[in-house]
Amino acid sequence: MNDAPGNRALADRIRIETRAWIDGQAVPAQSGKTFVTLNPATSALLAEVAACDHADVDRAVKAARRAFDDGAWSRCDPGKRKETLLRFAALLRQHGEELALLESLDSGKTIRDCRNEVAHEVPHFFQWYAETIDKSFGRVAPTGQGTVSMIVQEPIGVTGLIVPWNFPLLMAAWKLAPALATGCSVVLKPAEQSPLTALRLGELAAEAGIPAGVLNVVPGLGEEAGQAIGRHSDIDMVSFTGSGEVGAYLLGYAAQSNLKPVGLELGGKSPFLVLEQAAITDSLIESAVMAAFWNGGQNCSANMRQIVHRRHRDEFVARVIERVKAFVVGDPLDPATDIGAMITAEHRDRVEGFLQSGVSEGAQVLLGGASLDDNPGFFLKPTVFDAMTPDMKIAREEIFGPVLGMITVDSDEEALRLAVDTEFGLHASVFTQNISQALQFARALPVGTVSVNSFSEGSVATPFGGYRRSGSLSRDNGLEALAQYQQTKTIWIDLES
Ligand code: NAP
Ligand code: MG
C-alpha cells in the first residue's frame, strides 16, 4: 500500500479519458463542447470532458436500441453473457488501483474509501450479478390440465441510468450490473462533478467482449444530457440516484414523453437511535461517528439525526467528541486521511450555510466546523451540534456534509416519535440490548433499511431503497434490483383446442 507521495506519483501518470463512449467507441460530443471537472482537494482543473447533449444521447440510444434488437447481448446464451460479465468484473479488479486513484482525484474521496468501493466492491457487484444470469428461471402458473401458463421475465430494453457524485463508480455499478445481467442495453450519465471513472468503463467493457452499443456512457450536464435521457421516447426505463428535486423532474419528463417507469433512489434524514437499554460500547461510538461523517457526510443514508436517551447522553457526548477529534481531514491521497474534500466549493458553502442556521436557531456547537486554513481545496472539518431540536432546519433538511446533530430524549417512545417525524424514509440505526425492542422498532420505522446495533447499509445481496420521499418502489441491490430492468410476460397455451 502506497503512502501519499507514492499515490501522488501514480496519480500523475494516470491516463484520463475525457470522451464519451458511444457504440463501442470513444467520441467527443458532436457539438465539440466540453465542461471542466476539478480536483476538489486542490481546486485545480483535472480535465475537460465531452459535454454531451440531446444529439449525443440520441446517438447512444440508437446504438443501444440496435444492440438490444440484434440480440447479441439481450438474447445470447446465458452462460456466454455470464462469462462476459465475469470477464468485465475481472478487468475492473485488474484496473482497481488505477480506478481508485482516479476516483479520489475526481471526487475528493479518500483513497482508503476509493480502494474499498472502486477496487473491491465495484468488481464484486458485476461478479455477483453475473452469477445470477444462469440461475434465473421463469414460473408455470397452476391453471389446470387444459392449459399451460408460463410466466417469464424479459429485459425491458434500453435503460437510462443517471447517477450522483458521492459514490461515482459504485452508484453506476449498482445499476449497471443488474441492467447488463438481465440483457438490457444501457445509456449511463455520470455526474458532471465526477465523470472520469465511468468514462473508463467503455474500453474495459469492449475488452471483456460486451458488444458495441450495449454500454454507452454520456457525460454532460444534468439539464442537457440528463434531461435528454429523461425525455427520450426510445428509452424504456430510467433508474436514478440523486436529489428529490431532480427525481421529480424525471417523473415529469416521463409523463411528457413515453410514460417510461422511473426508479428513484433519493435523499434522506436518517435517525440514529440510542435507546435506554443500549450499551455504550466502542462499536456503538464508531457506528455513530461513521454514520455522520463517513464520506464527509456526503451520504444519502448518513445518520445525522442522533436521538439519544438522557440516561446515556453525557457518556455518549464525551466519547463521540473524543473520537471525532481524532479524525484526520485533508489530502485524500494520504491513506491516513479519514475525511477528504467536499465535492465543490458551492457544496462546501451550502453546508456552511446549514452550520450558520444551526447556530442562529440555537443549537450548541460542541466541535466546530470550519474550512481548513490556507488550503485551496474544498475541505470542511466535522461539526457536532448538541441541543438540536426537531423543528430546526438542520434537523429537517438533508445537509450532505460532516455534521452530527444530537437530540436528547427522556423515553424510547419519544425517540420513536421523533425518528418517524420526517418526510424521508431511507435508513435508521437502532441501538438496544433488548432484542424484542429492536425488532419492534425495526417494524415500526417506515424506512427501507434498519440496522440494529450497527450502522450498515447492507451488502450486494440485500435490497436498498427508500420509503416515503426517499425513493420509489424500485430497489437497488439484491435479487430485487433485477426487477427494475425486467418486464413480466405471460405465455398462455390452450392444450385442448
Ligand atoms: P442531483 O443534483 O439530483 O444529481 C444527480 C444526477 O442527476 C446528476 O448526474 C445530475 O447531473 C443529474 N441531473 C441534474 N439535473 C437533471 C435534470 N434536470 N434532468 C436529469 N438529470 C439531471 O443529486 P446530487 O446533488 O448529485 O447528489 C446528492 C443527492 O443524491 C442527495 O440528495 C443524496 O441523498 C442522493 N443520493 C441517494 C442515494 C440513494 O441510494 N438513495 C445514494 C446516493 C445519493 P449534474 O451532474 O449535471 O448535476
Ligand atoms: Mg471532479
Q: Which descriptors apply to this entry?
A:
497 residues; 17 helices; 2 domains; five-stranded parallel β-sheet; binds magnesium ion; Aldehyde Dehydrogenase, Chain A, domain 2; alpha/beta; Aldehyde Dehydrogenase, Chain A, domain 1
CATH domain class of the largest domain = Alpha Beta
Q: Extract low-pLDDT stretches.
A: none
Q: What's the pLDDT, averaged over the residues?
A: 97
Main sheet specs = 7 strands, mixed
Quaternary assembly: single chain
Query: How widely separated are the two ends?
Result: 70 Å
Task: Determine the CATH topology of the largest domain.
Answer: Aldehyde Dehydrogenase, Chain A, domain 1
Would you write up a description of this structure?
It is a single chain. The chain is of the alpha/beta class. It has two domains: 4-266 and 471-489, Aldehyde Dehydrogenase, Chain A, domain 1 (3-Layer(aba) Sandwich), CATH 3.40.605; 271-459, Aldehyde Dehydrogenase, Chain A, domain 2, CATH 3.40.309. The chain has helices spanning 4-12, 54-70, 78-94, 96-107, 111-132, 168-182, 196-199, 201-208, 222-231, 244-256, 282-293, 313-325, 345-360, 393-396, 412-420, 435-444, 480-484; strands spanning 20-22, 25-27, 34-39, 44-50, 139-141, 147-155, 158-162, 185-189, 215-217, 237-241, 262-265, 271-274, 305-309, 364-367, 383-386, 403-409, 427-431, 449-452, 486-494. A seven-stranded mixed sheet has the order 14-15-16-13-12-17-18, with helices on both faces. Helix 16 (435-444) links the parallel strand 17 and strand 18 (449-452). The protein is globular. The relative contact order is 0.14. It binds NADP nicotinamide-adenine-dinucleotide phosphate (NAP) and magnesium ion. Magnesium ion is lined by residues 37-38, 46, 106-107, 193-194.
